[in-house]
Write a structure and sequence with these properties.
This protein is mainly alpha-helical. 33% of the residues lie in helices and 8% in strands. The mean pLDDT is 87.
């Protein structure tokens, strides 16, 4: 888990460009004001012979760091953090049909953080896609029992949860993204677990009480 100078420089340039002028075409002029300080031997500038196969993951943290540093200055441009780095899941085994060894690598998907105008993408629509179950099971001796979102996992929210539209919270419950109890505790929305109807009176009172805490 070490970064390289070139991947660090690329990540910094990308972060600055996206925060300043996304509507303009990129040229060298955007890069001239950027000064990168990454001493040789640090995690962002590994020396020769140091393992750096996952240098892309290290460079990915730079965007999060810059966002965190500027979120109070540029709140309308900074999104919430994503779920984590994109990590590959590796599998190896012996095919019982042929007796041959096999191996495969598939990304472990993560969600993307929300921003001031929209929700972030879930892992289903994130930055990368996993290998479809049908391909995995037909190509390798693997059985995928389940692939689903973990309810109430959330970790990329933007703004005050008590200001999230009540109907949107209700939709999240219906889709299974969050539980009825999570909607009550985190968003201050009281929902009937059977009918999924919102108790507006109880919701307004609860949100008022939570906003005082």
């Amino acid at each position: 888990m070490n970064g390289l100078w070139v991947t660090t420089l690329s990540a910094v340039r990308t972060a600055v460009k996206t925060l300043t002028s996304t509507e303009l075409l990129l040229n060298e002029g955007f890069n001239r004001p950027i000064k990168l300080i990454a001493p040789e031997g640090c995690v962002y500038n590994a020396r020769p012979t140091v393992p750096c196969f996952l240098c892309g993951n290290i460079s990915g943290t730079i965007g999060h760091l810059i966002n965190k540093a500027l979120c109070n200055v540029l709140p309308e441009k900074i999104p919430a953090s994503s779920g984590a780095d994109v990590i590959g899941q590796g599998f190896i085994g012996v095919d019982p049909r042929t007796g041959k060894y096999w191996g495969t690598l598939t990304p472990c998907l993560v969600g993307q953080g929300a921003d001031h105008v929209s929700d972030g993408d879930s892992y289903l629509l994130g930055a990368t896609q996993n290998i479809p179950t049908e391909i995995l099971e037909s190509t390798y001796s693997l059985l995928v029992e389940k692939s689903e979102l973990i309810q109430d996992s959330g970790g990329g929210g933007y703004g005050d949860p008590l200001e999230r539209p009540i109907e949107t919270v209700r939709t999240d419950v219906i889709k299974g993204y969050i539980s009825v109890e999570f909607a009550r505790q985190e968003y201050g929305v009281v929902i009937d677990p059977k009918s999924f109807e919102v108790d507006n009176t109880a919701t307004q009172k609860l949100r008022g009480d939570l906003s005082k805490d």
